[in-house]
């Protein structure tokens, strides 16, 4: 997976490419294919590495299964989280997250054509919660809408947020690199935050202030100064949902232990507008770069806290 070609761009990771989209909230009527579909999917991915995908009607999420049959698998993401169905698991409460992110200098910010991605160079660790062993932060990126009523990938009782932040980690206890871990069942761990419009996010401003330098697909910049990704993590990490899922972009590997926090990140309208101003390879603004929820297929979603959550 090292240097997997996604949309013609060599990347070492997760989220890429996208164009203007689509997207009514639930237009994903996929079925669950089981093991056969997964085996076929893996074979096909190896053969067709240059499959173009994006978020437009022609190449958007509804079409991904043509080149990535695992799109119809039983462990796909995102999902709609229904708090009243989430089983409270007290063992999660007993094992808080331990986050040891390090300060980055000259942080790498890239316009992937599908999102903005910040690559992490130092050994920033994550453990605890639902995770076994140590994970290491690889990159973070976001998904967002064209308007503030859409943009998140996960939903809560069908409700979408304006955006969703994904902090992507790989299992450094069991694997030697992100590339090696990316397609393993316990290979990746993603922390997800819903994002709503409100106060300016002072830490995230280090990123959004640089977006005018990466307006074109493929652009990247080293942002001068220091940035610690821990500024993106809220003080209280004790309330979340967790389940086993997948990457939400091709190749859609079913390798992610998902954690979606119920604490919501706030950014200003100006910061949201900065995200919406960067362009994809068709020179259109990147918006609606999210995959809508897919079937849960009987998976258990665990909650780290009791009772139905009320989100605002
Ligand atoms: Zn993502």
Which homologous superfamily in CATH is the superfamily?
Answer: Alpha carbonic anhydrase
Q: What's the pLDDT, averaged over the residues?
A: 87
How many strands? Answer: 17
Ligands bound here?
zinc ion
Report the principal-axis shape: globular
Radius of gyration: 18 Å
CATH class wording: Alpha Beta
Number of helices: 6
Structural class: alpha+beta
| Overall number of structural domains | 1
Give the DSSP E fraction (strand runs of 2 or more residues): 25-35%
Helix content: 10-25%
Which stretches are poorly predicted, pLDDT < 50 over at least 5 residues? 1-49
Distance between the termini: 39 Å
Largest sheet: 13 strands, mixed
CATH fold category name = Carbonic Anhydrase II
Overview of the molecule:
Its EC number is 4.2.1.1. It is an enzyme of class 4 (lyase). The structure is a single chain. The protein is an alpha+beta fold and 312 residues long. It has one domain: Roll (Carbonic Anhydrase II). 12% of the residues lie in helices and 26% in strands. It has six helices and 17 strands. The strands form three sheets. Strands 4, 5, 6, 7, 8, 9, 11, 12, 13, 14, 15, 16 and 17 form a 13-stranded mixed sheet that branches. It has a two-stranded antiparallel ribbon with strand order 1-2. A two-stranded parallel ribbon has the order 3-10. The chain is globular and about 45 Å long. The protein starts with a strand and ends in a 9-residue tail after the last strand. The N terminus is likely disordered. The protein binds zinc ion.
